UniProtKB/TrEMBL annotation:
EC number assigned by the record: 3.6.1.23
CDD domains: trimeric_dUTPase (cd07557)
Name of this protein: Deoxyuridine 5'-triphosphate nucleotidohydrolase
Residues holding substrate: 63-65, 76, 80-82
Residues annotated as domain dUTPase-like: 12-142
Pfam families (alphabetical): dUTPase
Known function: This enzyme is involved in nucleotide metabolism: it produces dUMP, the immediate precursor of thymidine nucleotides and it decreases the intracellular concentration of dUTP so that uracil cannot be incorporated into DNA.
Highest taxon of source: Bacteria
Organism, scientific name: Mesonia mobilis
Needed co-factor(s): Mg(2+)
Pathway assignment: Pyrimidine metabolism; dUMP biosynthesis; dUMP from dCTP (dUTP route): step 2/2
InterPro entries: dUTPase (IPR008181), dUTPase-like (IPR029054), dUTPase-like_sf (IPR036157), dUTPase_trimeric (IPR033704)
Length: 143
């Protein structure tokens, strides 16, 4: 699949690091470093603009190492970029740690996964078919 991209950053295009990688790292495109205090959030621009085919979305997801080691994650994970969006990709980061975190230009801040999706058509009914699970939710099937 080919995706059109405009790169207004000074950084390389996102790329798959291994043959089996699902995501590509997104990098911060900053003029000055950003200090993200504990429990603060910020939208970090990437300098990237994409044109996805209809039927696909781009999902902005946290980087596991940044989350585990520094407590930095994507606030609305996964963030969705729709096929008709043409603006700059921004990443909403939040600092869940107890220490300030410095975001530098070019820092890998999130990952991008391209995924196919379906469009649903609602069929209004009076009754839903029964299932083994029924109405159980929010951990009802676990211990």
């Amino acid at each position: 699949m080919t995706v059109k991209i405009i790169n207004k950053s000074n950084h390389q295009l996102p790329a798959y690091e291994t043959i089996a990688s699902a995501g590509m790292d997104l990098r911060a495109n900053l003029e000055d470093k950003v200090v993200l205090s504990p429990l603060d959030r910020v939208i970090v621009k990437t300098g990237l603009f994409i044109e996805l085919p209809v039927g696909y979305e781009a999902q902005v997801r946290p980087r596991s190492g940044l989350a585990a080691k520094k407590g930095i994650t994507v606030l609305n994970a996964p963030g969705t970029i729709d096929a008709d969006y043409r603006g700059e990709i921004g990443v909403i980061l939040v600092n869940l740690s107890k220490e300030a975190f410095v975001i530098n230009d070019g820092e890998r801040i999130a990952q991008l996964v391209i995924a196919k999706h379906e469009r649903a058509e609602w069929q209004e009914v009076e009754v839903l078919e029964e299932s083994d699970r029924g109405e159980g939710g929010f951990g009802s099937t676990g211990v």
